[in-house]
Design goal:
Elements (H helix, E strand, L loop, with lengths): L1 E6 L2 E2 L6 H19 L3 E9 L3 H10 L3 H18 L6 E4 L3 H16 L3 E11 L4 E3 L18 E10 L5 H10 L4 E2 L1 H12 L5 E2 L1 E2 L15 E2 L1 H6 L1 H8 L7 H4 L4 E5 L3 H14 L7 E5 L2 E2 L16 H8 L1 H11 L6 E2 L2 H30 L11 H7 L2 H10 L3 H22 L1 H4 L6 H22 L4 H10 L32
Bound molecules: zinc ion.
Zinc ion (ZN) binds next to loops.
């Protein structure tokens, strides 16, 4: 089965921040999990590089837009690498292959009769690079997202007949109730459609920094149409000499932030209909990360959590874990350095890290460095039986936070098991030798099974631990708690989460 998942592409007029990291990590967890299950996964991320805001930022710095785009695209690539994100391709919308394919698809939209020339006049947010319709404008004529004043703009544009897709979009939403998830964002998108769609500007006449309109070279495409098409165009050139569209299109999941809901849940399906392309299965909308005080992060409030600071101090897996653990996926959540430290100390170091080092130390000491090859504790095993299926079901509904919670309950269960069985007591009496062996076989097996399930969240740490347990395999069917201890030879393990 093929599984095609995308993040939004990041706009290169700014620096990478925690929101970018969060979206990439959550998408990566879903992609890695699907790979564990043997699905044919393609995971795309990248950068959005055209449009007015990039041209303006470059002009302010006295450089060419291309130079700015190159520089900032590199920063986003580096962030993805540091987050250990397993994307299969990194698209840049300035890739010539992307530009050619955008022209090809939009020319088809034009020939299909969905485009006309007209005068556009409206309230425009330069930061969004978007005209705002009356019912979304904030009091005082402000952008609903940036809360900055809108400007009155008018120009001759090519228009996309979005209004003519109203009925088809309403039908799509009726037939696919999980087209947009979670539900409150589905309702928000549908009510936007129900309020009546207006045609939207497809091109810009004043701007040079964009993809040229093939039937009118004095215009470039409006950056959003160029950007949205990345999800499709990437498949046509991500692998040299190969067209992956038959294999992966349509996308299974587009993961996006709620600030770009309208583009992905209204414009995008309409554009695909106009181009006679299949529609994605789901658009998953995550929330915003807020400062620890619950307010929007801003430098002036001093509540910004810098992903690089967390990475430097606690490491990649700790950041991945923290964001998936602390912010319910799909909702807004407050984040801060103090909370990172608490999760690190109490859960990663004391619960998981300590379970790992205790288990390995006891196996080294009491059973000669081998996980006993004896029957595991069937009562304990029964508490783990349903776990892999539960985790898979929850992740199929794009809920990495809930899945992590289910796994973490078992991490805690194993710690309680250590206390209940007190292997150090059992080791004192030869009569308890069998019980000691059963205990250590069960602990080794439980630790191995939860680590396979934690692998998508913390790939480096779990690989180290599974290696030390002598069972490096991370395929999903290995998450089952076996009836027998593995018999594997363990090897020494440095603390997984050292004291900071
Ligand atoms: Zn705006």
């Amino acid at each position: 089965m093929s599984f095609y998942i995308t993040t939004a592409i990041d706009y290169v007029n700014a620096q990478p921040h925690l929101g970018h990291a969060y979206e990439k990590i959550s998408t990566d967890v879903l992609a890695r999990h699907k790979r564990q299950r043997g699905e044919d996964v393609f995971f795309l991320t990248g950068t959005d590089e055209h449009g007015e805001p990039v041209a303006d930022a470059a002009r302010d710095q006295g450089i060419e837009p291309r130079v700015l785009a190159d520089r900032n695209a590199e920063r986003f690539k580096k962030l993805a690498a540091r987050l250990n994100v397993s994307n299969d391709f990194f698209i840049r919308t300035t890739d010539p292959q992307h530009e050619t394919m955008v022209q090809e698809v939009l020319l088809r939209v034009y020939r299909n009769g969905h485009v006309y020339k007209g005068i556009y006049e409206g309230w425009y947010c330069p930061r969004c690079a978007d005209f705002k319709v009356e019912n979304e404008i904030l009091e005082g004529n402000l952008c609903p997202i940036h809360e900055i004043p809108l400007t009155r703009e008018s120009e001759e544009n090519w228009f996309f007949r979005l209004s003519s897709f109203q009925e088809r979009l309403v039908r799509l939403y009726a037939e696919q109730p999980d087209f947009v998830m979670p539900r409150h964002h589905y309702n928000e998108a549908l009510s936007f459609i129900d309020s009546g769609l207006q045609d939207v500007s497809l091109s810009r006449a004043k701007l040079k920094w964009g993809v040229q309109v093939p039937w009118d070279p004095s215009h470039v495409f409006y950056v959003w149409f160029d950007a949205l098409l990345n999800y499709y165009t990437a498949l046509t050139y991500a692998r040299a000499g190969e067209d992956l569209t038959a294999r992966y299109w349509p996308a299974t999941y587009h993961v996006i932030g709620k600030d770009i809901l309208k583009f992905h849940t209204v414009y995008w399906p309409a554009l695909l209909m106009a181009a006679e392309l299949d529609l994605p299965h789901h658009v998953f909308v995550h929330g915003f990360l807020l400062g620890a005080d619950g307010r929007k992060m801003s430098k002036s409030l001093g509540n910004v959590l810098d992903p690089f600071e967390v990475l430097d101090q606690f490491g990649t897996d700790a950041l991945r874990f923290y964001l998936m653990r602390d912010v319910p996926f799909g909702a807004d959540g407050a984040v801060g350095m103090a909370a990172v430290r608490t999760r690190y100390d109490t859960e990663l170091a004391n619960e998981y890290g300590n379970l790992a080092s205790r288990t390995i130390a006891m196996i080294a000491r009491y059973t000669n460095g081998h996980i006993p090859d004896v029957a595991t504790d069937s009562a304990l095993a029964s508490e783990f039986d349903v776990l892999p299926a539960e985790v898979a079901a929850v992740l199929d509904r794009a809920d990495p936070t809930r899945a992590l919670d289910l796994i973490w309950h078992r991490v805690r269960r194993l710690n309680r098991y250590v206390e209940e069985r007190s292997p150090w007591e059992l080791a004192r009496s030869p009569d308890d030798a069998d019980r000691l062996r059963e205990t250590l076989a069960s602990l080794g097996e439980g630790l191995r099974a939860v680590s396979v399930l934690l692998h998508p969240y913390m790939p480096e740490t779990t690989e180290r631990l599974l290696g030390a347990l002598g069972s490096p395999a991370t395929e999903f069917d290995r998450a089952l708690f076996a009836e027998h201890g593995s018999g594997a030879r363990i090897s020494p393990l440095e603390p997984l989460f050292p004291k900071q």
